[in-house]
Fold:
Amino acid sequence: MAIADIDKEGLIEVGKVLVKIVGEANVIVMPTDVSKTEDVIRFRDRVYEAWSEVRINVSARGTHWQSIVPTYPYPSPPLPYPSSLR
Structure:
Protein backbone atom coordinates (compact mmCIF):
# COMPACT_ATOMS: atom_id res chain seq x y z
CA MET A 1 0.00 0.00 0.00
CA ALA A 2 1.39 3.36 -0.99
CA ILE A 3 0.14 6.51 0.69
CA ALA A 4 0.96 10.15 0.09
CA ASP A 5 -0.09 13.35 1.78
CA ILE A 6 1.13 16.89 2.30
CA ASP A 7 0.67 16.46 6.08
CA LYS A 8 3.96 14.72 6.88
CA GLU A 9 3.20 14.11 10.57
CA GLY A 10 -0.21 12.60 9.91
CA LEU A 11 1.17 10.57 7.03
CA ILE A 12 3.89 9.05 9.21
CA GLU A 13 1.32 8.21 11.89
CA VAL A 14 -0.92 6.41 9.40
CA GLY A 15 2.12 4.72 7.86
CA LYS A 16 3.11 3.24 11.22
CA VAL A 17 -0.36 1.75 11.63
CA LEU A 18 -0.26 0.27 8.13
CA VAL A 19 3.18 -1.26 8.74
CA LYS A 20 1.79 -3.03 11.82
CA ILE A 21 -1.06 -4.43 9.73
CA VAL A 22 0.62 -5.41 6.44
CA GLY A 23 4.37 -5.28 7.17
CA GLU A 24 7.05 -2.76 6.28
CA ALA A 25 7.84 -4.33 2.89
CA ASN A 26 4.25 -3.68 1.81
CA VAL A 27 4.06 0.03 2.64
CA ILE A 28 5.38 3.14 0.92
CA VAL A 29 4.89 6.42 2.75
CA MET A 30 5.85 9.54 0.84
CA PRO A 31 5.13 13.17 1.70
CA THR A 32 3.58 14.59 -1.48
CA ASP A 33 1.93 17.85 -2.46
CA VAL A 34 -0.61 16.68 -5.05
CA SER A 35 -0.96 20.24 -6.34
CA LYS A 36 2.59 19.85 -7.73
CA THR A 37 2.86 17.63 -10.77
CA GLU A 38 6.51 16.83 -10.06
CA ASP A 39 5.59 15.49 -6.59
CA VAL A 40 2.88 13.25 -8.04
CA ILE A 41 5.24 11.95 -10.73
CA ARG A 42 7.90 11.25 -8.10
CA PHE A 43 5.36 9.32 -6.03
CA ARG A 44 4.10 7.39 -9.07
CA ASP A 45 7.65 6.49 -10.08
CA ARG A 46 8.44 5.24 -6.57
CA VAL A 47 5.37 2.99 -6.60
CA TYR A 48 6.18 1.57 -10.04
CA GLU A 49 9.80 1.05 -8.97
CA ALA A 50 8.67 -0.97 -5.96
CA TRP A 51 5.78 -2.96 -7.44
CA SER A 52 5.73 -2.41 -11.24
CA GLU A 53 2.01 -1.63 -11.27
CA VAL A 54 -0.89 0.20 -9.66
CA ARG A 55 -3.93 -1.96 -9.07
CA ILE A 56 -6.14 0.60 -7.36
CA ASN A 57 -5.66 4.35 -7.19
CA VAL A 58 -7.70 6.55 -4.91
CA SER A 59 -7.07 10.23 -4.94
CA ALA A 60 -9.05 11.99 -2.24
CA ARG A 61 -7.82 15.53 -2.44
CA GLY A 62 -9.58 17.98 -0.23
CA THR A 63 -10.95 19.97 -3.17
CA HIS A 64 -12.27 17.36 -5.60
CA TRP A 65 -12.03 13.76 -6.78
CA GLN A 66 -9.34 13.26 -9.41
CA SER A 67 -7.32 10.27 -10.55
CA ILE A 68 -3.86 11.41 -11.63
CA VAL A 69 -1.99 8.12 -11.79
CA PRO A 70 -3.28 5.91 -14.62
CA THR A 71 -3.90 2.23 -14.08
CA TYR A 72 -1.30 0.00 -15.68
CA PRO A 73 -1.14 -1.67 -18.13
CA TYR A 74 -4.81 -1.45 -19.15
CA PRO A 75 -6.94 1.56 -18.21
CA SER A 76 -10.42 0.49 -17.19
CA PRO A 77 -13.62 2.38 -17.93
CA PRO A 78 -15.30 3.96 -14.91
CA LEU A 79 -17.53 1.54 -13.04
CA PRO A 80 -21.03 2.54 -11.97
CA TYR A 81 -21.43 3.22 -8.27
CA PRO A 82 -23.18 0.48 -6.33
CA SER A 83 -26.65 1.58 -5.25
CA SER A 84 -25.49 1.50 -1.62
CA LEU A 85 -23.08 4.40 -2.37
CA ARG A 86 -25.56 6.64 -4.20
Summary: The beta strands are 2-5, 28-31. Helices lie at 8-22, 37-51. The longest strand covers residues 2-5. Residues 63-69 have pLDDT under 50 and may be disordered.
